Amino acid sequence: MVRLGTLSSSGMEIDRESLLVVLAVAAAAPLLADLPRRVRVPGVVAEILLGIVVGPQVLDFAHTDALIEALSQFGLAFLFFMAGMEIDFERVRGVPLRLAARGWAASLALGMVVAALLYALGVIGAPILVGLALTTTALGALVPILKDAGLADGRLGTRVLAAGAAGEFGPIVALSIILAIASGELWRTLLLGVFAAAAIALGLLATRVRPGRVVRLVEATMHASGQVALRLALLLLGGLVVLAGTLGLDVVLGAFTAGLIVGLVARGEAAHAFHVKLDGVGYGFLIPIFFIATGLDFDLDALLSDAATLALVPGFALVFLLVRGLPAWWLNRDLPAGERVALTLMVSAALPLVVAITEVAVDAGRLDAQDAAALVGAGMLSLLLFPLLGMRRA
């Protein structure tokens, strides 16, 4: 029997009430982000916190079912797709990109050393995966913060975008290699080269081959029901996500690469309407569901059940600041003091990849739920505090 409030198809139950609560939270989160500055909460953090509140461990108004889980996965892919789109190589090439690459390499070395020490002290498990999580930057969450503050197009915004790109692309590639090696089939690492070759070929095709009929259709349907440009972008996103998954790589690598390719093609004022439509699909619908679902699934009991685990949250947040922020502070000595501090704080904000990497570690039985909850909690804390503090110094 199907109870009131659920739909059932092929034995799969879908809870309409949970979906309604998730949509209500998505609508309410921007209101929290628009509070007075002293109590303002970033939209991403508001979505996760509200997800925890309405979730099974607090009010129990909603839970993740098959539909919400599927939409959440689409949201995760779209988050990295949008992050890839924001990388303007014309803006970040040269000094910003070189500094970003060197900074992430230094963070990787520092993160592995810190994680090894924590592992030796018995604080964490999965030192390699935790060390990798420490090198991440929440570029997808920082982009709207920079845009809303009017900083995305300035020097500070360019440095943050470059460092954020390195802090997402580097960990994604490294995670794909680690998973391939962990599978015991070293030949799978070669598939990363296959994926890279396919992505480069698609990028060249997209930037150099522009059939007249397709161009006319894109222009003619930009404000009509056809929406050819949007459909082609979603096709590329789906195709590279499927290709990455088929090759045994992390699917967010496919999403991020699709965003890079679309970003190369869709630049300038002519592409503004197209970007607005993608923002609507991503930030207006799919991406909030990912963050709210993260809150619904957050293991609050594991975090609160032990005082030592709870104390790890601010401790890990400081480790994020050390591992990501210290190299950024050291390498960007040409910036004024205020911008240098702002950059250091903003690149230390982490969350989406922390969620993804800890899930991999927990599923592999190498990281317990308490440590994973502490790391995710630290990611939320870093995203709540670091950009806010950084904006005050920008």
| 3D shape | globular
- Give the N-to-C terminal Cα separation: 58 Å
Helix percent reads: over 70%
Radius of gyration: 21 Å
Tell me the strand percentage band. under 5%
CATH class category label: Mainly Alpha
What is the tally of helical segments? 18
**Can you list the strand order of the major beta sheet?**
1-2
Report the uncertain regions: 1-7
Structural class: mainly alpha
Q: H/E series, N to C?
A: EEHHHHHHHHHHHHHHHHHH
Whole-number total of structural domains = 1
Q: How many distinct beta strands?
A: 2
Average pLDDT confidence is: 82
Q: Architecture, according to CATH?
A: Up-down Bundle
The major β-sheet equals: 2 strands, antiparallel
CATH topology: Na+/H+ antiporter like fold
Summarize the structure in words:
Helices cover 74% and strands 2% of the residues. It has 394 residues and is an all-alpha fold. Residues 1-7 have low confidence and may be disordered.
